Amino acid sequence: MQNHDYFKTIKVEREDSRIIVYCIQKIVDLENGVLYWEVEMEQVLEELGNRILIVDFSGVDILASAALQFLIRLLFCSKEKGFKFGLCGFQPNVLRTLKNTCLTDLLPIAKSADEIISNINKRNINEAEK
What we know:
The chain is an alpha/beta fold. The chain is 44% helix and 20% strand. It has helices at 34-47, 65-81, 92-100, 113-129; strands spanning 10-14, 18-23, 27-28, 52-56, 62-63, 85-88, 109-110. It has a five-stranded mixed β-sheet, with helices on both faces. It has a two-stranded parallel sheet with strand order 3-5. Strand 1 and strand 2 form a beta hairpin.
């Protein structure tokens, strides 16, 4: 029998206005728990409510294609369900992968959680002024 804690791929901090998810897996691919990562993220999305989702990738060295697919699904899910999210903390090599796949043009990427909140607040102000 396998211990699910061994496959724990994220650490979650819950706050009033946001949920911060820290990816704690150095390599996110099929062999290293991307399926568990997706299950854990789905549980976070179920409890999100009207809070902002922030996913911090500072602990990740490699994102495989399966993880990239999940990020694209997260984008479509955010549009469908209407929640706001941002991704931050990418290592230079991971950010380069996102740029090479043009995902930096689609995904809300920032350097830090605070920058994500600031960007979302600016968008809210701009939308309210329209």
